Amino acid sequence: MKSVWRQPLFLIGFGIIAFFLGGSFVFEWIFGNVPKQTFFIEENGRAVEGPPISPSWKHPLGTDQFGYDMLAKIMLGAKYTIFAAMAVAALRMLIAIPLGFVIGTYLQRQRSWINALIDPMHYVPMTIFAVILLTPVLWMPEEGFSTTVNERIVIQVVIMALITVPIVATLIGNEANLLYHHEYILAARTLGASRRRIIIRHLFPQLREKMLVLYGQQVVESLIVFAHLGLLQLFLGGTDVDYDPMFGDPPKSISYEWAGIFGNTFRYLQGAPWLPLGPAISFALVILAIAAMIEGYTRAINGQAKIPKRKRMAFVSEETIEWNQQQFKSKLILLKKDTTTFK
């Protein structure tokens, strides 16, 4: 694991994640939970621009339609978004790993029809299942929510984790089944090792690196599903809906998580493109950071932690090459004379 910290890609990705998480806590500790609200920008006592205010030195990412600084909202919501995606991926892996080992070890004969049953799920977007299952939980009814914010977050994390558990479990099961054909596992089974011991002593250590890479991929997938849900007005922790038929506000997020910011500002894409651009860039940066960490970790475990030094090449002058050619020709002529005299 020490070689991972010598990989530039891993360090770059880790630095981006640390910047968002650390900056989120530091920003909240310094400025509080509510970002500053700017109503108008004035020049010479005259209002020249109102919310949404375009990007400037004072507001690098501009402000939303209510005058709140977009950079502040993104920094405050970074911890909720990233930790929620990590929680979904962690719960998914905790459930899928034991199931995968069971499929690959105890259900080897049934593995073919299990794969045939689960393979069609690869072609169905997970967002569809998430919308169907999470709409009753996250969309606020007219009488209000009957659950708390923490309860809705837990329910959302559990449902999003369970959606893709079968796919991840079959993937781990197939990898475990391939290892059963290796000689050292065949030898262990011949010597009387139980299936439980083979899982603990052989399968898990061999698949540990692949499962860490798979965990990073699940974090990326969770972030993408969060973004899709944000476009469909299903926000982390619930969607606050105003049912006033005359002066109702559009659905809004309870917290400042990125999916809520993205969903609330996407309708301003043409008039104020900086509003959805901020959370979209944040999602992209975190996804690229995780991809860089995965690539760096993969290179480290494959023994590519150190960049090999280039070998020094000795250059030979043309005069030396001509002299060697002449020497070779003279020796070849002498060799032919010797062969003729010998005959």
UniProtKB/TrEMBL annotation:
This is ABC transporter permease. Belongs to the binding-protein-dependent transport system permease family. It comes from Paenisporosarcina macmurdoensis. InterPro entries: MetI-like, MetI-like_sf. SUPFAM superfamilies: MetI-like. It is a multi-pass membrane protein. Keywords: Membrane, Transmembrane, Transmembrane helix, Transport. Residues 82-298 form the ABC transmembrane type-1 domain. The chain crosses the membrane at residues 9-31, 80-103, 123-141, 153-172, 212-236, 274-294. It is found in: Cell membrane; Membrane. Coiled coil: none annotated.
